[in-house]
């Protein structure tokens, strides 16, 4: 049973046994109350109402808010979270999450490449970082790449792809 009535107005704490008002729930997660109202308007939350019409949040609502926050931290938008919450179908879930997973993999690869460059600069023994072998390799790779005008059928939406070009 959830009880948080210490020093709170009755509209924020325990009005009904085991429930929280909107202020208490928002405070618990460090959110503004308007965020919870917005999530409710989007169909992400469905709080019960007391006799006075005030929102009452139970244990399931706490789980729901925590789930929304975790999914937002993972990079999902509220519309995607709403669609995911409306389906129990594994194939639909995969269809929704696959593009997000691919985007994250791409961002992770870019961050890894950036980290490699930075660490190369930190570990370089030369006074002039442009003389470091790792730096020179990365620059040579960049010089030999070019964006082609042709579209690779494997790329999404027919986007141009980078292609290595042998030096002339």
How are the secondary structure elements laid out?
Layout: H1 22-29, H2 33-41, E1 48-49, E2 55-56, H3 59-73, H4 78-85, H5 90-123, H6 133-144, E3 145-151, E4 160-164
Antiparallel strand pairs: 1-2, 3-4
Based on CA atoms alone, the radius of gyration comes out at 26 Å
Inertia-based shape: elongated
Helical coverage, percent range: 40-55%
- Secondary-structure element pattern, one letter each: HHEEHHHHEE
Structural class: mainly alpha
Strand content: 5-15%
What are the key terms here?
single chain; 168 residues; mainly alpha; Multidrug-efflux Transporter Regulator, Chain: A, Domain 2; 2 domains; disordered N terminus; disordered C terminus
Describe this structure in words.
It is a single chain. With 168 residues, the protein is mostly helical. The protein contains 6 helices and 4 strands, in the order H-H-E-E-H-H-H-H-E-E. The chain has helices spanning 22-29, 33-41, 59-73, 78-85, 90-123, 133-144, and strands at residues 48-49, 55-56, 145-151, 160-164. The strands form 2 sheets. A two-stranded antiparallel ribbon has the order 1-2. A two-stranded antiparallel ribbon has the order 3-4. The chain is elongated and about 75 Å long. The relative contact order is 0.07. The model is unreliable at 1-14, 147-151 and 162-168 (pLDDT under 50).
